[in-house]
Structures are given as structure tokens and as C-alpha cells.
Amino acid sequence: MKALVYDGPGRRSWTDHAEPELTSPTDAIVRVDAVTICGTDLHILKGDVPEVERGRILGHEAVGTIVETGSAVTTVKSGDKVLVSCISACGRCEYCRSAAYGQCLGGGGWILGHTTDGVQAEYARVPFADTSTYVLPSGVSDESALMLADIVPTSYEVGVRNGGVKPGDTVVVVGAGPIGLAAITNAQLFAPSTIIVVDKEPARLDAAKSFGADVMVQPGDAAAAVAEASGGLGADVAIEAVGVPETFELCTKLVRPGGHVANVGVHGAPATLHLEELWIKNITITTGLVDTSSTPMLLRMLAAGRLETSRFITHRFGLDEMDEAYDVFAHPQDSNALKVALFRS
């Protein structure tokens, strides 16, 4: 089969690779029907995630068809169309029993495309298939479900839910990439009074407007926009959706006393925490890896037509166009790409 293989910082290849095999009774083999690329994959290629070894198949977001299951798998079977979650869950450890699947102690957590081979391939081995895949409801397309593998539950859980967005809030989202746009979508479920989006790229600010943001500004204008929207108080919730020091530090400047900074971005370098300014302001700062505990709820909303996810996808490719898809996704300033999707032909 073909797979996207990491060859060390700055190097990748769409190349021949051995097909996966069952290695545990709880595994399933999935034929990948649709897959996407994540900003985290770009962080890996930059060398920001040193745990990823050379030779690793990347990717942790896919929709596919079960072709084989281990003897202990009971909830999915050959022929089922499933969403493959970015988080694997053993289902038995202390964290899994409290739905904190991202912190799984039993061999799960974020492992696909990280510490085990991922899903940017024609076939993939999915560990803990009973608790790490979700059968697609009738009428839900591969393309729509694909966005629920990572960005939609991540922005919901780590951004909006952890941030405590509530009706009437002033919410600022720093970064209008896919995660930031998903945060806009999810924040609207809680009826904030104003959603302000900050980004340097005009095309991404235009995208933020189309996703329902009320105010779109460049970073240099962010403080004035937040002050105007909040009566000078600052944002109730600031969601960091980039993963660089400047954007995190900007969130801490935009949040009001008693407010909440919800960091969603994946950071590859230290950021300065200005406690000399923040200690007196009663600020709450949260970080997090998605648990995907919200995925069943989000799938129900998708099936009911209460959630629109296809609009995240701006570019579509065949699986064998993986290199081109990476180039497009990695240069959004040239391509205006939000999310790319690749499909089995």
C-alpha cells in the first residue's frame, strides 16, 4: 500500500509501505476512505514533536470501512463505516473511566501518527477499536464526519467548554485557521454577545466572517476592538488557536479580570507568562489535549442537521495526491486553504 511517511524534520514521502496487521485482539484494520491533514502534522514536520520517530506513518483523522477485527472487538464489524478518532482509548484505566481519554494510561491517548502508525495511508491499524471508532449515523457523509475526528471536538472541549463560554459573553478567538473557525462554530452554540477574531491574514478574517464572527481584526487592532465590544472590561473568554508565544501572550492581554484563557494551539516553543501583571487579575488559564468525549454528541448533532462541517474543507484531492495536498495545506497564505480532504478513488 501507499502511506505518508515521516523521514525526519522537513522530510516526508508518499511511498510504498507494508500493509498493517492485527497485533492485538482489540485492533481493527480500516480501509481509509477519507483522510485529512492537521496543523499538528505540520508541527511534527517542523520537528516540534520529537517523540515521532522516523519511518512513522502520519495522520490521526480519518473515515473508513472496517475490513478486519480482532477477536475481542464486539461493537464494530467488517463492512461498518466508521469515524476514526484522533484519540485512542483503552476504556479501562482510571482516566478512561472518567472520560479523560486523551490521558489514557492503557496504551491510548494521542497515539495515531504519533507513537504508532497513523491513518494517512490506504489502510490503517486502529487500536482499541471498540472505544476509538464511531459508526457513522445514516445519512452522514464521509466528508462531514471527517471534521469530527479532531478539530470540531478539540475546539469544543479544549476551547469553548474549558473556557466556560456562556450566554452574553465577549469571546475573542486568536487565530482563524481550522481550529479557530471551529471555535467560532462551537461558541455560537452558547449564544455569546460578541465573537471577535484576530488574525494577520485577510483571507482568514474573511473566512471568520463567513463562519459567524462579529468583529474581525488584525493583531495590532485587537485590544481596541475588545475594549469597544466589552465596555472596556476585556474578553470574558480568550481562545488561543495558533500555538506560538505571541498569540498566547496576546490572549493574556485581551482577557478581562476574572476571565478565562483557553489555550488550544500546539506549542513548540516556550511562551512567557507575565505573572507580574496577571497575579492580581484572577485569570484562569487552561490547556488541554482533546478527550473526544463529546464526539457521540457532535455526531448526533451532525446527523440531525444542527452542525455544518463540510464548509471547513476548501480543497479536495485523491489519496494519491497526498504530497500536493500537504503543499497546499502548509501554505494557506498562497492557497487560502482551511482544511484539505483526500478521498479513496
From TrEMBL:
Family of the protein in this entry: Belongs to the zinc-containing alcohol dehydrogenase family.
Basic and acidic residues composition bias: residue spans: 9-20
Coiled coil segments of this chain: none
Pfam families from the UniProt entry: ADH_N, ADH_zinc_N
Annotated ranges, domain Alcohol dehydrogenase-like N-terminal: 25-129
InterPro entries assigned: ADH-like_C, ADH-like_N, ADH_Zn_CS, GroES-like_sf, NAD(P)-bd_dom_sf
Cofactors required: Zn(2+)
Keyword line: Metal-binding, Oxidoreductase, Zinc
GO molecular function, one term: zinc ion binding
Gene3D superfamilies from the UniProt entry: Medium-chain alcohol dehydrogenases, catalytic domain, NAD(P)-binding Rossmann-like Domain
UniProt domain Alcohol dehydrogenase-like C-terminal: residue ranges: 178-293
Positions of region (Disordered): 1-20
Organism: Amycolatopsis mongoliensis
Name of the molecule in the record: Zinc-dependent alcohol dehydrogenase family protein
